[in-house]
Amino acid sequence: MSEYTLGSGDVIRIQVYGEDDLFVEAQLSDAGTLSYPFLGELQLLGLTVGELQDKIRKGLLGDYLVDPKVTVTILEYRQFYINGEVNKPGGFPFQPGLTIRKAVSLAAGFTERASKKNMFVVSDSDASQTPRRVDLNSPVKPGDSITVEQSFF
């Protein structure tokens, strides 16, 4: 998950060792921004946790603190969505290590008409929003939209 990029809906915690006034817990806005003490409005969309820690550390370094120790933690990942031939379609909280098989389980399993071979994912990060065919062992990322098609046999 070190390559995981932050997006709208993620809930994060920012802590600076020994600086209680710089503790923040917040959900990223639709624009992917967060208001942070001394630094103002920060654009976080697309940053990794490590990049955000570095950005805050550099912002606080010098004018505010001598050697800030910044920790960023993801408390809640944004949701993924599953629809089509599952018993309980909808949005569910992402969990690291999630696969299509586990996502279907969270959605209360397949319906009788579900095709286990015609499943597609549209990734939040794909600008073209092109559906790609997946199997039960394919990984799921936060913001993904999974569609389980109907079987014809």
Overview of the structural elements:
- By secondary structure, the protein is mainly β.
- The chain has helices spanning 49-60, 100-106, and strands at 11-16, 24-27, 33-36, 40-43, 70-76, 79-84, 90-93, 114-122, 132-134, 145-150.
- A hairpin with a 5-residue loop joins strand 6 (79-84) and strand 7 (90-93).
What structural keywords apply?
mainly beta; 2 helices; 153 residues
For the sheet with most strands, the description reads: 5 strands, mixed
The low-confidence runs, each spanning 5 or more residues with pLDDT under 50, are none
> Which term fits the overall shape?
elongated
Mind telling me the C-alpha Rg?
19 Å
The share of residues in extended strands comes to 25-35%
Helix content, binned percent: 10-25%
Structural class: mainly beta
The total of helices stands at 2
Strand order within the widest beta sheet? 7-6-10-8-9
| H-E string | EEEEHEEEHEEE
Q: From the structure provided, what is the oligomeric state, counting identical versus distinct chains?
A: single chain
Tally of DSSP β-strands: 10
Ends distance:
39 Å
Overall pLDDT: 92
Give a concise summary:
This protein is mainly beta. 12% of the residues lie in helices and 35% in strands.
